[in-house]
Amino acid sequence: MSEYFVRELIALIFMAVALGMDAFSLSLAMGMQELRLKRIALIGFTIGIFHLLMPFIGILLGKVISGQIGNMTTIAASLLLIGIGAQMIFSAFNHEAKKLIHPFGLGLLIVAFTVSLDSFSIGLSLGISGVKTLLALILFSVSSMMLSWIGMLLGRKVHGFLGKYSEILGGSILFGFGLMLLLS
């Protein structure tokens, strides 16, 4: 292996973990909803697929679309996370309120799409830089899938200790992460 390849691999691994951290945060909150292991596996797999597809689409469009769209996707993802987090906090106090997004069906696709929006904008820049596309896509997908699984399993454990307050904690994590994304 050449020194250049090793440096590129290390950079891609760090980028993949960084991209997967929003999936980890969201998964930590989702894990507090007492999900079954089968559902956790499906959610993680779906998030991993979206973290493969979104940067791939970004790479394909990287030479066509300007860098301005990256800011719009970050803002959209931030606002959605803030909204979901606020709704989770509100529903913890109002037992009659329904959850905004359930990790089932269309809700699962929305969750996976939301946490993979930042990987789309990264894909745009990677398409211009000429990075090893297949390697980047595999690393992004596997990293986000693994971090999602870890987050949901940790969320299940925390829920057992916190009970009703776990939904407030999960909502606060999402709200705070969305706010951090919006302000950065």
Automatic annotation (TrEMBL):
Pfam families: Mntp. Its main location: membrane. It is found in: Cell membrane. It is a multi-pass membrane protein. It comes from the Bacteria. The chain crosses the membrane at residues 6-28, 40-61, 73-93, 105-128, 134-154, 166-183. GO terms for molecular function: manganese ion transmembrane transporter activity. InterPro entries: Mntp/YtaF, Put_MntP. Keywords: Cell membrane, Ion transport, Manganese, Membrane, Transmembrane, Transmembrane helix, Transport. GO terms for cellular component: plasma membrane. Probably functions as a manganese efflux pump. Belongs to the MntP (TC 9.B.29) family. This is Putative manganese efflux pump MntP. It comes from Oceanobacillus zhaokaii. The lineage of its organism: Bacteria, Bacillati, Bacillota, Bacilli, Bacillales.
